[in-house]
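Page 42, continued from yesterday. The earlier attempt failed because a stray header line got pasted into the input along with the sequence. Redoing it now with the clean sequence only.
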Amino acid sequence: MRREISARWLAVVAATFVMAGCVIVPYKPKAEIVDQRVVEVDSAVFVVTVGPRQMLEKFTKAIEDEDDAIKVVPPQEFLDVAFVDEDASLAKMLEPETCARVRERMGTDYLVLIGEVKEYTTDEHGGMIAYMGFFGAQSSEEHSTAVATVIDLLNARPLSEVSSHAQGRSRGVGAFYGLFVVPLTDSSARDGLARAVVADIRSQSGPGELRIAVLAAEKITPPPPAPDTDLGPR
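This time it went through. Structure tokens are written below.
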């Protein structure tokens, strides 16, 4: 299990770790999965990218850990083959010519597009003072949500859309020494998404070696409106 804790708790612990002892107890809450096979994507408002790279690397590892017969191709190489001009929109990616080109040159049958990963905190209670030790008690509900769209490159269409949500209670108590119970919601949501994505792909491809691509889908930010230069009558 990866020993990851939220930045919020890490800041508290790191501030006084050298001055007072503490015990961190991480746990992985169960991820809730929503899997849709009828997918409606506004492909004109999304672009396909290779970033954030660290996020893609984590999801790639989670998918390969889930199924070692699936190999993920280098994302930048996939982009270079898929988009021969500056148009890297999802609409361009879904064109039959684009899908056929990446299948022929890279041997990829599926594209997994990772959307925005959201992390947030709710239901906060109590407080903790971190000065020459840990004093007080606090708790909060931590949430992580990850989404992905699986593209069937053979048929040039979305295969499924998956959402994975994990939440767990963070707790900390201290009377000089601190005890922190920390949910690993980010890795739980990520691993849940990887399991669901692999299951969707295997439901169509069957067993055997497979090459896929894992990239990010980022929403296009519309340009700001032009300033109004009409100042009216003087």
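Notes: Strands lie at 22-27, 31-36, 46-49, 70-72, 110-114, 118-130, 134-152, 157-183, 210-219.
Reminder to self: strip header lines before submitting.
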